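Handout, section B. The chain below has 281 residues.
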Amino acid sequence: MTLNASVVERSTGRVITGLTQKDFKLEEDGVEQKIVHFETTNAPFDLLLLIDLSGSTAKVTDIIRAATARFVAATRPQDRVAIIAFSGTTTLVSPFTANKAALTTAINSMQSPKGDTKLYDGINYALDYVDKESVSTRRKAIIVMSDGLDSNLPNVTGVGSTLSYKAIYSRAQEFDGMIYSIWTNTEYEAHSPLDIQPETFDLAYDQLYDLTEAGSGLFYEVEKLEDLAGIYEKVISDLGTVYSLSFNPTNKGRDGRLRQVRLRLPNKPGAVARTKQSYTR
């Protein structure tokens, strides 16, 4: 089991770097666990961009392309990037690579997939792809750009995901990487019962937020797609503050029960670790 954590000063929120394995204590259900592997903030990532190109975003694909290119340009030399786009179908835009020129070429040719909005299936595809294609020695992160709307939600037209939100939430809890979300605001005023209602937009937002929490990542809000590039660059900056700690749970059971985890820094009384607080096994 791997935990990914950022450490900040409790009073100021300032990120703390330069920590070592000896600074951390890890507990599961109150029982201390032995940390068997530790990665500093400089360790490489395999980063997968999952981009929602359904609905209204099809009209602003050029903006999304430009923002994605800036994300690639901001990544560290040791990181690899893969890109997947989805709507009703899912398209691999680029496999994992550290070749920024190849990534830029793939981004420039990126087209909107066909069909309705299958967000949950898109995330499931991304999780499967990372599990299969990511290098085991690398840390893993999925960055989801979406408004959170799946065609399964009330008043959202079209055919939705085959996978339920509950199922994808469970997968996020079990994922040993991180899930970051960039929520894009596509809400409009409903003029009839056939329009997407405010309650559905709120539900989509809440679901994407909770999914991010389950995946121990960070949640960002984009009110205007023109601001997307700046948010992408902030994601890269935040990923550069992440420590990763792996342990073999002393409780070997696999009963599907929720387990509580706690990451402490006993020698740093003013510091707090931001990481997932539970998982199922």
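Note. The longest strand covers residues 2-9. Compare this with the example in section A.
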